[in-house]
Amino acid sequence: MPEPFDAFRIGFAMNTDSLLSMTGIDKRFAGIPALSGASFAVGRGEVHALIGQNGAGKSTLIKVLTGYYKRDAGEVVFDGKPFEVSSPQQAQASGISTIYQEINLVPYRSITENICLGREARRYGLLDWKRMHQEAEALLRRFNVRADVRRPLLEFNTATQQMVAIARAIGFSAKLVIMDEPTSSLDEREVAVLFNVIRQLKQEGVSVVFVSHKLDELYEVCDRVTIMRDGRTVKTAAMNEIDKIGLVSAMLGRAIERAEGHATAFSDRDEKKIGKVLLSAENLAINQIVQDVSFSVRSGEIAGFAGLLGAGRTETARLVFGIDRPRAGTMTFNGHNFNPHKPSDAIAAGMGFCTEDRKSEGIVPDMSVAENMMLALMPKLSKSGVIDEKAQRDIVERFIRQLGIKCSGPDQKVRELSGGNQQKVLLGRWLAMNPRLLILDEPTRGIDIGAKGEIQALIKTLADQGLAVLMISSELEEVIEGADRVFVLREGISVAEFDRDDATEDAVMSAMAHGSAPTIAEAAA
Amino acid sequence: MTRQRLISMLGSYGVVLALLLLVLFGWARYDYFLGFFNITSVLRYNSMFALVALGMCFVIMTGGIDLSVGSTAALGSVVAALASPQGALVGLGAGVGAGLCVGLINAILVTRLKIMPFVATLAMMLAASGTALLLADNQSVSVSYESGFTSIGQDNFLGFPIPAWIAIVAYVVGWIVLNFTSTGRGVLAVGGNEDATRLMGLPADRIKFLVYFASGGLAGLAGVILASQFGAGQPIEGVGWELFAIAAVVVGGTLLTGGVGSVGATLAGVLLLGILFNVLNFENGKGWISLSAYWQSVIRGLFLLVVVILQAKLSSRGSVAVRDY
Amino acid sequence: MTDTARQQRISRPFDPFDFMARYGTLIALALLILFNFAFTRNFATMQTLNVNLTQVCTIVIVAVGMTLVIATGGIDLSVGSLMAISGALAPMIFLGKIVPIDNVALAVAAAMIIAVGVAGLFGLFNGWLIARFRIQPIVATLVLFIAGRGIAQVLTNGNLQTFRVPQFQWIGLGRLFGIPVQVVLMVLLVIAAAWMLKRTVFGRQILAIGGNERAAELSGIAVSRVKLVVYTISGLCAGIAGLVVIAINSSSDANLVGMGMELDAIAAVAVGGTLLSGGKATIIGTLLGAMTIQLVRYTLLANGVPDAAALVVKAGIIVLAVWIQQHGRRA
């Protein structure tokens, strides 16, 4: 359980001149809490980091603040006054500008328009392009960006686009600028420029909320940090009072010295059942997200990918499954060179891939359980193109039983099922193919506790039967207790590999935070 | 980068270049091609299409489509003809008003009931056409010749056909709105990325509402010219106008997915397709070949084909003609 | 979303929109028939049935192909023009305008196969544009919507082709066991397509692509190939419908054959309950939808309402059907 904590008190204790304070914020979506009693305070001229796992509630908190969502409960005080806004437009007018994670600009329009849309300069009632161009140029110059502001945004690289987004936010003479992962698409030099701008803003008395998963950056530019987990703000601290391990453990909700015993349904596995290497990948690279990743998976083994958000785990899996093509690196599968061009190549070789995003890449919502489960196997189960209904029904019913899928029958629409049961249907889709390797990306995300344990036990059974499993999970205990080997990815590079016995929480967390096992000095600190 | 720019320049000015080449070709080959009579009759006739295409251009720039413009023009022509005995201006107002009514319903269906533009305007195409036939009792409605209504379509002003003047004014206004008002820039922003536009705090629904409303009004205006030019309200005219307009807009380099577009290039697109037909007529007149009038739709289709394939290739390469001011 | 919330939604109470989205068309059709029995004179006659069936036939044949296209999340605007092409080509062949063929049966067979085949090839061309260049279906098929009719007009030079060839006109005027041949043809097509959509791998793949193209691709489905085939089928259906129309009329006018057919077909599909965004399709629904629209028109005409007003009513029906569907899904 998180320790009792009052951001409001700490906020005033640290910064008597508070710009923003949010207390007791609740937000529910269709009855499910996304924020429960979250608190957040930012002082004037302060750079405040906001971190947390995927689904911890950072984005929701930001969207509540900017009026994109309406909060269900709680108070917001901004600039000394109660703050009630119902649209991003109003928030902008009140002095809060936001740079969203996915660059929310209009690619076909010019840089000038993207910076000035919504507060255009006018002359005789018509737009004054000359003045707007000058303004855009002047704003960009602060970031050392020189670009033809008349050209459409899409002609520029991502870093410039990011700078344009920031210029837009600052151009609104904001008192508070929210940056949601602004550095994810920037290289080192560009990050340095951005940090200069943040320091400049700070000097001008502008506050910045900085969301990032790159822990090093936080120490470089932030004054304080607030950590979120499960819709709550669990900790606020000055950056110089908390180390990286402290950040990671607060994010994951694990104390370093935690009690023995299992938190997941993975029980210990018999090492002898693990066979030969089935898939090995060397030095895979595609772009900044995947720079240099090497790993292998053996038959009957569960290999785990650990890492923070944006470490390149999903992107690596996509390379293996032929969705994207790597720029560099080699793969072998079953002893042969493996170079898939499209997913059906990987499927033909004997792979299955349960994607992280069940809704947009997994289920076909309007189809039945049976149809979803048979989607990949169907061609093999047909006689000259006609589906063998009986054989299909037998298989589906067997999997519904084996996987314990709760549904009214094979004909129920899959969108009516719970997340856990949808996941089991997708598992069934691949298991029906009798694959040799199964890639599971966040197999238990968004699934309630009971179904979670069932799926974990299932994965273990499958591995015991000789299936190779590559499991990506953001839940540390799932990787540590479930995987026979853990590969840690950090900023696109595979930085560490642990056997089951060495994969302790401190070791893995430390690799996620620092990129290597902790030194003695750090462990002592 | 230079190569990319070259391609995008070609995207911007390709249609203008093609238009110039076609005019040069016509001038070199046919005696009366650039004669006063030919020029004015081409402009007089195509001004109706130009108005419809202008409205379509704005709708498409928001990422939508308006399939009802042809029937709306037919309805406008009938209503204008029926009202024409009350005076030329009443006829004009009634025709435009009928168009605005159709536009209003389209706007409500799209922005309030959230029905796909394609379906909503398809339904309004049927409804407008049915209303026009009902009002006209299934036949042409002749206009009043006493009230001066016909001069809207048939007379000249400063030696230039009045319909052409109307189209020119409409395009100048359209150009100013697109390039020098925040609503105009909002149109392009909504089509480029509707979510981002909302997050930027622009009134996306109001912008969409306005373009459908305006498209209806312009189609109604085209109907007024139709009635006045041919002396009768024509309930069965306008079939296929929407597709001519879409083709002209696309040939003019406006992306059908929205977000990119130009008023000037749309006009060039209309003229290009219109003059193509004109050239075919001259060619047949020379008697060397006898290409029937039917070739025009084949050639229009081919034009459209080349343009959409080029657009697909350009946008997949991430370089699209954008600048228009 | 947690399990409990989901479960609650499963056992949700009666939802009028959902109910209407499911059974609205059927109910409307039943009400229309009852109304006509009560108020329309001479409704319960074979002749009325035949008139209505004949008029709805070509729409249904085209709408079957359209349903499949829409099921993948696409649209085909070119069907009317493809009807014109097939309708222009067939008489040219069996009248021997291209190559004289002495044997009438052979000439008619060649005419049918070639005309429908060419329409299918144009459909394939649509599919190629959509799959290869990723052009939006509405634009890609617009090309042939414009050019297709032009091609038909150029082929015939815009002239009316009249003919009296009973062997050919059998498909429009003949009868099998007392039932018009075209109705038999329509029923066969409907059954075949409904069966394919339900029972074959291909049908399943069509729905999967329309329901979630990413998921379909990740499950190893050859998305481009399926799209190519679907647009080809739509072209073939349009080709067949073109033959039926000219057979009934004993003449082929490239300017008129299939005019506005794309709208009628789309309307039938929408009213029939197929999602216009793809992923959920019912061929039987399309049949019912076409019959409903036809019967509304017939009812209005038979009771003295002008044809033009029927158009306005049709527009209302389309908007209502789509609105109910969207609402039913959102709830």
TrEMBL record, chain A:
Residues 20-255, 272-516 form the ABC transporter domain. One of its GO terms (cellular component) is plasma membrane. The keyword Mitochondrion does not apply. It is a peripheral membrane protein. SMART domains: AAA (SM00382). Pfam families: ABC_tran. GO terms for molecular function: ATP binding; ATP hydrolysis activity. InterPro entries: AAA+_ATPase, ABC_carbohydrate_import_ATPase, ABC_transporter-like_ATP-bd, ABC_transporter-like_CS, P-loop_NTPase. Keywords: ATP-binding, Cell membrane, Membrane, Nucleotide-binding, Repeat, Sugar transport, Translocase, Transport. It is found in: Cell membrane. Belongs to the ABC transporter superfamily. This is Monosaccharide ABC transporter ATP-binding protein (CUT2 family). It comes from Phyllobacterium bourgognense.
UniProtKB/TrEMBL annotation, chain B:
It holds the Pfam family BPD_transp_2. Keywords: Cell membrane, Membrane, Transmembrane, Transmembrane helix. GO terms for cellular component: plasma membrane. PANTHER family: ABC TRANSPORTER PERMEASE PROTEIN YPHD-RELATED-RELATED, RIBOSE IMPORT PERMEASE PROTEIN RBSC. CDD domains: TM_PBP1_transp_AraH_like. The lineage of its organism: Bacteria, Pseudomonadati, Pseudomonadota, Alphaproteobacteria, Hyphomicrobiales. It is found in: Cell membrane. This is Monosaccharide ABC transporter membrane protein (CUT2 family). The chain crosses the membrane at residues 7-28, 48-75, 87-109, 115-136, 157-178, 209-231, 243-276, 288-310. It is a multi-pass membrane protein. The keyword Transcription regulation does not apply. GO terms for molecular function: transmembrane transporter activity. InterPro entries: ABC_transp_permease. It comes from Phyllobacterium bourgognense.
Automatic annotation (TrEMBL), chain C:
InterPro entries: ABC_transp_permease. One of its GO terms (molecular function) is transmembrane transporter activity. The chain crosses the membrane at residues 20-39, 51-70, 104-125, 137-156, 176-197, 228-248, 254-276, 308-324. It is a multi-pass membrane protein. Keywords: Cell membrane, Membrane, Transmembrane, Transmembrane helix. One of its GO terms (cellular component) is plasma membrane. It is found in: Cell membrane. PANTHER family: ABC TRANSPORTER PERMEASE PROTEIN YPHD-RELATED-RELATED, GALACTOFURANOSE TRANSPORTER PERMEASE PROTEIN YTFT. This is Monosaccharide ABC transporter membrane protein (CUT2 family). It comes from Phyllobacterium bourgognense. The lineage of its organism: Bacteria, Pseudomonadati, Pseudomonadota, Alphaproteobacteria, Hyphomicrobiales.
